[in-house]
Amino acid sequence: MRLSMVVEWSKGSPFRYAWKEGRLALVAVDQPAPVNYGLIPGLINPADGEELDAVYLGPPLPPGTQVEGEVVGMVWLADGDHKLLLEAEGQKPGPGEVQGLLAWFHPSRNPRLLGPGEARNWVSGLLRG
């Protein structure tokens, strides 16, 4: 399963943007992101009513970049605000990239890594709506 996402927060950058109505707006300066973080336009997460959060594994991408990737997993969170993991075909995450991502979330959210099959099934359920 391939999906397209928009990067809102570049790997290694403290500048966090939000994608609203087709435009980026700076919303915070925070600790640097361990991954390229963004959203899947048009796909709503029922846990928060917002567009589904996604992560693009690999080298830093500028904010506003629209990139397509293969669904390779999901960070499951206890509050239901799960994060899809995407990567370019044939590109594997760098050493510690996924572990750094899991450590980024507060332990109370009980982050767990789920595999590609579980992630695809969850997304398929959202698409059927």
Describe the protein in words.
The chain has about 130 residues and is α+β, with helices and mostly antiparallel strands. It has one domain: Inorganic Pyrophosphatase, CATH 3.90.80. Helix content is about 15%, strand content about 45%. The protein has two helices and eight strands; from the N terminus they run E-E-E-E-E-E-E-H-E-H. The strands form two sheets. A five-stranded mixed barrel has the order 1-4-5-7-6. Strands 2-3 form a two-stranded antiparallel ribbon. The chain is globular, with a radius of gyration of 13 Å.
Under the CATH scheme, the architecture is: Alpha-Beta Complex
Report mean pLDDT, rounded to a whole number: 91
Instruction: Tell me about the largest β-sheet.
Output: 5 strands, mixed, barrel
Give the class-level CATH name: Alpha Beta
Q: Which radius of gyration do the C-alpha atoms yield? A: 13 Å
List keywords for this structure.
single chain; 129 residues; alpha+beta; Inorganic Pyrophosphatase; five-stranded mixed β-barrel; two-stranded antiparallel sheet; 2 helices; 16% helix
What's the structural blueprint in terms of helices and strands?
Blueprint: E1 2-9, E2 15-20, E3 23-29, E4 36-45, E5 50-56, E6 66-76, E7 83-87, H1 97-104, E8 112-114, H2 116-128
Parallel strand pairs: 5-7
Antiparallel strand pairs: 1-4, 1-6, 2-3, 4-5, 6-7, 6-8
